[in-house]
Write a structure and sequence with these properties.
38% of the residues lie in helices and 12% in strands. It is globular and about 55 Å long. It has helices spanning 10-14, 21-29, 34-41, 58-72, 89-102, 149-153, 158-184, 201-207, 250-256, 258-261, 286-296, 302-306, 308-311, and strands at 107-112, 139-146, 189-192, 211-213, 219-221, 228-235, 274-276, 279-281. It has one domain (45-318). It contains 13 helices and 8 strands. The structure holds iron/sulfur cluster (2 copies). Residues 263-265, 267-268, 284, 289, 292, 300-303 line the site of one iron/sulfur cluster.
Length: 321
Amino acid sequence: MGRYDERDAMFSRMAYEKGSPQYEEYYRRHPEKQELDDRLRSSNGLCSPASLFYDPFLSGIAAANFQFLADIKLFSERAIRDRRILLESREATLLLKNLAMDVGADVVGVASMSPDFYYSVRGRIPKYYGDRIAEFQPYGVVFAVQMDREMIDSSPKSPEIVESSRKYIEAAIIGMQLSYFIRNLGYKARNHMDGNYLCILPLVAEAAGLGVFGRHGLIISAEFGPRIKLGLVTTDLPLETDSKLDLDLEEFCNDCGKCASGCPGSAIPADRKEEFEGTRRWIIDQERCYSYWMKAGTDCGLCIKNCPFSKTANLYPFSKY
Ligand code: SF4
Ligand code: SF4
């Protein structure tokens, strides 16, 4: 499968202001997407007073959380200290995993990074639009924070987006703490957080054994099911890596289908996996999903709520061991 171009992601497309160079360039290449995107750009928007589940207080909290995230994303990259402290990979791995848990992660792993986990071209931040991603770090410290079950059970109403935005902040701040710490040891470290990712985090989480993909396209973690937000720090500090889980939920998802039948945007396929660029997978229709978010004014979350692993969250019976 080829690397994904971030310019095609809905959040990137929504950031192209009419008349801007990004807008002109993108729709010159993708005229077929222009009408839908223009409509969505002028529609309600997340947390908007005109949206279905607007709540003056809760939507305001979520909007403020996203503003805060937009401000701090600029701290994702910083210069490293020139004097390097030498560490054994085992010692460094333990140190970073303990630090991640200590500052709030609920699960953490280390992935051996593949260039395939990175976007091919940047799109979300106008300043970097069109930049090819050609620098890859060998290790990824990937972690998750769990989202509160009661808040997620309110999906698609506004408590869901309060929880979702709050956990984006938690993941971002854990990543900041890890990356600042690693740079002070004299190694490269880059925090990947909401609005400023260079990588597709679920692919990294799968590689590090944090969970496996479900039909809804989300990582189902062994501990909390899909009720998580992911964070990632990529680094050149030598670390010991974890392995993928030896689990397969395909048969279970074939029988279950609750995320697909409960999706108000009809964005999750109800059929079996299909062949796509050399891999078999379920393909989520991001345009349909995002269109529903614009109506709801929240990031919906019904597929997380409806997944049985969000309730019982125990993948171990599916293990091949
Ligand atoms: S977030 Fe909502 S609209 Fe999007 S795929 Fe999940 S259930 Fe469907
Ligand atoms: S709701 Fe069912 S089909 Fe969808 S990901 Fe969860 S287990 Fe799989």
